[in-house]
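Standup notes
- DV: blocked on the single-chain target, sequence here:
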Amino acid sequence: MTVDEESAGQRLDNFLFRQLKGVPKTHVYRIIRSGEVRINKGRAQAETRIAAGDVLRLPPVRVAARSEEGATPPAPAREFPLLYEDDALLAIDKPAGVAVHGGSGVSFGVIEQLRTARPQARFLELVHRLDRETSGILLVARKRSALTALQDQFRERETGKTYLALVEGAWPVNKKVLDAPLAKYLLADGERRVRVVPKDHPDAMHAVTLVRVLAAVTLPGDATPMSLLAVTIKTGRTHQIRVHLASAGHAIAGDDKYGQFERNRTLQKRGLKRMFLHAWRLQFNHPATGERMALQADLPPELAALMPPEAAAALTIPFSTPAP
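- DV (later): unblocked, structure below
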């Protein structure tokens, strides 16, 4: 099949979900990972963006006829805290523990729940992604033109994305730039992970992370020094912040993939029940008006409750603060 103008800019997996209605998402991901889906005769990944004129080759796929009794139930309707909404887009404050979309063992995510909650909406598409364990600002486009314009901004690095991260240890204040290539790999059980690799690694992806120390932190009842960081990403690689910080020797508190198991158990007893990574601030140009937008999602209560007064005060820094 050939990609038309209307579908240009979509992620490959989202495009296939619409083309292969009735095929389980797990099967769609399986044929992508196995290389059976080709774009212009080359292998592709689920997050690959398709372009108008791309030629897709798919393996034979049987769409199972389902009775009403055996049909997959629709995602439950759910609205999320709104930070901004107009005719072109909406910005929500995604809670931790909720995937942005279904797939890879997850039946549904934010976007499926929003579509169920807003059946009158003709168009709702994710502009970008957040890890399931990460809370904070998530943009959803309400028009195809808005989706394309916003994704172009993300791709061209015209957005400003800043996260809050609580990390282990005292971060050196003079360590402001992490410029280390990343590559994906699979564990023996098939779980996807990411690691820092040499620049000449065949799968190396350029990744740059900027770090600013906001405050030194010690949690109640815990003597281990920690640091609250404002982290700005210049590239949007999978698990970029988590891997960059962990590879620098300062894993994010509560990170079950790249942190330390025993330390995380201790942190749970101190009141930290999740990974301390929050998509805090986002700047972008409005896709219709061109106005520069500046959105902020305050720390959720379960994280804010752990912050000493000096750390809470540091969160009032203005948007205009220069990047490190």
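- Follow-up: Confidence is low (pLDDT under 50) at residues 65-70.
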